[in-house]
Amino acid sequence: MRSEVKIGLALTALLVAVTAAGAASIKNTKHDLSSGSTGATFKATNTDQICVFCHTPHNSAQDIPLWNRTNPTAGTFMLYSSSGMNNEPVKTGFTADSISLFCMSCHDGATGLGSKVHNVPNGVAISMAGGNDLLTGEANLGTDLSNDHPVNFLVTASGIAADGNLGALDTGTKPPTMKTADVTNGLPLFRSARGATTLECGSCHKVHDNTDAPFLRTTMAGSKLCLGCHKK
To answer: Between 87 and 70, whose confidence is greater?
Structure first.
């Protein structure tokens, strides 16, 4: 009887875990640009494919992560920096391999949402409703990111120690992470030409899950996301 109860509890726990994992989805969010999307401000008129706007299984524009878009030029961006940054500040644009450039291939407001898709569905160019192929409004960050949180800079243990008010760097995780005691899961760091632990857009945002809008890795309630890196 005890064994049956344990098995039953285990199956219940597994079902709850699977249900929770399946709850997070890009479908019908602002990142779902398909014609059938109920959540997108900008969407296509002639394809119901969701993933095609960013990914392709074959002949990708870039192999990681099977990228299906034409990225903007890295050097056209101005990034935030200040003399008070102990982790190495960079002002003069992204590295060409920065994962943040993938985000900016829509959010620069100058790269077409549908027109810059590398492999189009069935060889037919994607058309966007109302001819709106460029992001507008607050989602359009432009190319001057000097008034936005710094990205594409290398996080180092020495920089963290010099600052004194940042979370710990853990290079033993895959990917490496940075965290304080205020969060359960560390915030991921990414590899770029600057090094193996660069902070990028994806450190704070998870593009396929809008549970914590706008696509955040954890809630902003009580500034939890900010306190995941910053000790205040």
So the answer is: 70
Closest CA to 215 of 204, 227, 229, 200: 204
Question: Helix, strand, coil shares of the chain as percentages rounded to 5?
Answer: 25, 15, 60
CA separation for the pair 66, 56 (Å, rounded): 6
More confident residue, 129 or 13: 129
The CA distances from residue 209 to 36, 57, 83, 213, 219, in Å, are 18, 21, 35, 9, 12
Taking residues 50-78, report their average pLDDT.
96
For residue 106, give both structure tokens: 């829509």
Owner of token pair 């920089």 = 159
Furthest-apart CA pair in the chain: how many Å?
67
Q: Which two tokens stand for residue 88?
A: 């190495």
Nearest to 230 by CA among 199, 190, 206: 199
Torsional sign, CA 21, 182, 101, 99: negative
- The model carries a pTM of 0.87
Strand, coil or helix: what is 54? coil
> What was the pLDDT predicted at 67?
97
- Rounded Cα gap, residues 102 and 112, in angstroms: 13
3-state secondary structure (DSSP) of residue 14:
helix
